[in-house]
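Methods: example folding runs. The two proteins below were folded one after another, and each record is reproduced exactly as written to the output file, sequence line first and structure-token line second.
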Amino acid sequence: MRHSASAEPPKPPGVLLAYDEDSVALARGCGDLATHMPITQLARDGLPRQLAGRDCSAIVYCGNLRNIATARAIRAHANAVAGTYRLYFGLTRIDHWARTQAFAFGATAVHPITCVEDLRALVTQLRHGQADECTTISSGQFHGIFTQGQQGDWLSADVVEAAGETVIEEIETVGIGEWLKRVRQHHQGTYQHCMTVTGLAARYGRLLGFSQRDQRFLTEAALLHDIGKAFIPLAILDKPGRLDANELKIIRTHTVEGHRYLEAHANCDPMVLESVLGHHELLDGSGYPNGLSGGQIADLTRLITICDIYAAMIEQRPYKVPLTPAAAAAELEVMVAAGKLDGALVRAFSRLEAELA
């Protein structure tokens, strides 16, 4: 993190938002925050038309680094203010190249900005000193996937793939333990759970030596495994206690609903579809929705099931205390002994559990 070498007192958490032509609509969406921060468009000569005042401690550059004019403007300004402000990059197009470029320009952190809500959230977190605790997979990306499901819209494969790649890159950068810590900062239960499962699956696949193709399938299956919860009433999803028998029956429909939606509105690989439908199936036939057993359950689905169960055990829930990683791993072994989970895959998962201890 970049800080001033001066002995001056710390600056208040003011923020300058500098945006490019690709981000005009996003900046306008933050217009009501203008009383708390200057908002300016990046000038083509490389400097914003107004600089951050002495009451600012951070700058957010919002734009597309593939745009040559934007890259030049940000580089020139970042060089001019190096060591004075924390520099945050809200990238409208994020990939490995853009992330690398941002850090080369002196970024404190990089965040994907896919909608106005993402940018507003980043600015608000900065003003409250919380941005360094954010995971770089945006709640906007995840919320967009679920919103498309609720509205019956077509789900873009590019959106899902980009979200999965962001998770993989972030875990490679900060490690699975730190990544899960950041995910826990989010209050939304479904988001937190799906991100936990996706993070575990991404790291699991890497430890198992999956090819890039299989890693992508595994991560996408994890990201989408609970998409069917978009069709479950919020009163049930957000209930601060255990579900009764009728509510449990309703929530168990999420596997079928998720499969039905993806089959009709997305170009998902059949293995991903199978995992969405079957991630609550168990090897002894006691799972749902179809009571599959043994060889009827594909390996990819078995992997997602292990990540899903483990995530549920280590997460904070209103009605239970989370288990430690070691205790959750022990519970997986109990399920192996009962014939419910694949023993070889659970033993492989223990390598991941060791990183969380």
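Second run, written to the same file directly after the first:
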Amino acid sequence: MPAAVPNARLVVATGLVGLFALSLCIGVDDMSLDRIGTNAGALQLLLVSRLPRTVAVVLTGAGLAIAGLVLQILVRNRFVEPITTGTGQSAALGVLAVTLLFPTASIGAKTLAASATALAGTSIFLAIAHKLPPTQPFLIPLFGLVYGGVIGAAVTFIAWQTDLLQYVDVWTNGEFSGVLRGRYELLWILAAMVALAWWVADRLTIASMGREVSVGLGLDYQRIVQLGLVMVAVISSLAVVVVGMIPFVGLVVPNLVSRLMGDNLKSALPWVAVTGATLLLACDIIGRVIRYPYEIPVGTVLGVVGSGLFLWILFGRTQRA
């Protein structure tokens, strides 16, 4: 296993670079180097559409993977992620509320509202999850699915009553076709959240041992939990506001990386971000080429790829046991 880790790192890093370059070339218009150098329109298309989209995919994939990892640490359960704990649905509820009350609100205002509702929704989930019996680990993800489903149903009902179902559909089906320069820059906050998670990685590792052990080791457990909740809420709300809800990245990527690199959070965390970006970029490319020149939303592609990876993780865990 140790010998496989450097090889896996090389494959992931090389794959991310290669997929990044490939993503810039995929589209109806020709984006060859010769044409970019001689055609001002091609260069403009690259800078306004192709490059922002690719950067947005990388930032979103890295951020969602880190959000899933932090949430799994806070809940102390490997089978949760923001979409299956009501965080994404709570963020959508916040966006819907702002849209109804302040139709002309900016993306920044929608993000703030989505972050507040995502934080509240995740806090409620975490409070209830800690009361569930730790000997039944599958109760937490099952409760999360029900909890998120209830919030999602409320969002759908309100949208149906206010004739905003098509608007809500944009948030529930993650896709990057509408990402352009000027509409994705808020996603750079995700990079700051990734850096923050790496900075507090040691404290998150201690927090994963539980409240009693954390307090005994001198950690302010409540504060680190609050910081983790803020990171998860901000990442999830930004993703929902800009590109919509994207499943499975925060669920499968931390589990895949932990299989190869163990639970040393400080060293594994950057590779969780890189692997999340690589997985999302690969699925985005698949969605763009499988029905070219039309697109399949990346959330749909990840629903297939992610479920397959998750089943592989479950069966692999069972076989080792």
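Comment on the second run: The two ends are 17 Å apart (CA to CA).
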